[in-house]
Amino acid sequence: MRERLENVGRLFLHGYHAGLQDDQAALAQQLSEVPLEHQGFAYEGAAMALALLDGISPWRKDKRFSRFVVSEGQRHIYMVHVGAGWAFARLPWLRRSIESVICKFHPVLRWLAVDGYGFHEGYFHWRSALQTKISALSEHARHIFYQGLGRSLWFLHAADSGEIDNTISMFAPQFQGDAWSGVGLACAYAGGTSENQLEELAWRAASNRAALAQGAAFAAKARQLAGNPVPHAELACAILCGMTADTAAALCDETLQHVDLHHSCPYQQWRELIQERLTPSQAFERQPAWVC
User: Fold this and answer.
1) Residues with Cβ within 8 Å of residue 241, at least 6 apart in sequence
2) Cys-Cys crosslink for 157: which of 119, 125, 163, 264, Cβ 3.0 to 4.6 Å?
3) Which residues of 162-181 are buried (b: 16+ CB within 10 A; e: fewer)?
4) What are the tens digits of pLDDT across the range 80-101?
5) How far apart are the two ends of the chain, measured CA to CA in Å?
6) What is the pTM of this model?
7) What average pLDDT is seen over the chain?
8) Is-contact 15 41, C-beta < 8 A?
9) Rounded-to-integer distance, Cα 244 and Cα 162, Å
10) pLDDT the model gives residue 286
11) Of 139, 86, 93, 91, nearest in space to 114 by CA
């Protein structure tokens, strides 16, 4: 499991270094050479590099990230916006005003940059992530920051559900569901767990099971859009959502149609609509084998 997750990091770096070359034709070629299942991680890294280059050359009108979003990055649009959040986390003048910076992006997807920011802080600056990092964020942004923080736990704790549960239990109650949502997204997208492990994860999420399932549904949608479905996403959706990955992805599409783009945070509204539609699967109703 640790090797699998470390490979994700290597693929992210591959995309990042390719993006730094500032040649989008060459970038597209290098990204296409990554195995289809793992391309999303490389795209995320490439998006970070492009947003970083934009951030250190604000005078340039032709924005690299914006060009990537409407061209090669379309198939991995969710991962691409997350990657931008990594770049903003690295540049203090953008990090301090991240909500203003993302206003130029898609009204729903732009919030994924805040998720990327949360992941970055959880992964690299764990001890300070919950202290000073969210003080400048709005209430909506804080919820999404914690979603990214939750995603980082999947990698920090090498998918150990007990360690993940212990860490989330230390968060403020109002943000615990957001963290479980991030865990669900990470486990369904990155994979590496068995049916029993997923059932344990669902059991530990307890009252936040709908949030965990919503994260898995988002992962299913991201993979469907990219055209890279995988068995572990199918299994995660079966256990956590009680439906197939395609059905979970369709639920994301359906609920998105009801999102008010003028809402103060359409992304948060989208998450809530999905969670309202997800009912506990049978895996939630029975006691897992690991419980004594």
Assistant:
1) 213, 216, 217, 220, 247, 248, 278, 281
2) 163
3) eebbebbeebeeebbbbbbb
4) 999 999 999 999 999 999 999 9
5) 25
6) 0.93
7) 92
8) yes
9) 26
10) 47
11) 86
pLDDT of residue 129: 62
What mean pLDDT do residues 146-175 have?
95
Neighbour-count burial for 216-254, b at 16+ CB within 10 Å, e otherwise: bbbbbbbbbbbebbbebbbbbbbbbbbbebeebbbbbee
Helices 24-32 and 39-55 pack at an angle, to 10 degrees, of: 160
Q: How far is CA 11 from CA 5, 90, 119, 155, 195, in A?
A: 10, 19, 17, 14, 26
Between helix 209-226 and helix 266-277 the angle, nearest 10°, is 110
pLDDT category of residue 22 using cuts at 50, 70 and 90: confident
Rounded to 10 degrees, the C-alpha dihedral 203/207/211/217 comes to 40
Q: What is the pLDDT of residue 292?
A: 43
Distance from C-alpha of 71 to C-alpha of 53, rounded to nearest angstrom: 18
Q: How far apart are CA 206 and CA 263, in angstroms?
A: 29
- Cβ-count burial of 65 within 10 angstroms (0-12 exposed, 13-18 middle, 19+ buried)? buried
Residue among 84, 283, 83, 87 at smallest CA distance from 198: 283
Q: What are the structure tokens assigned to 94, written together?
A: 């953008």
Residue 35 φ then ψ, to 5°: -50, 140
DSSP-derived secondary structure for 52-82: HHHHT-TT-SS-HHHHHHTTGGGGGHHHHHH
Least confident of 2-6, 31-35, 106-110, 206-210: 2-6
Supply the angle between the helices 195-205 and 173-190 in degrees, to the nearest 10: 170
Name the DSSP letter for residue 278.
P
Contact 16, 31 (CB under 8 A): no
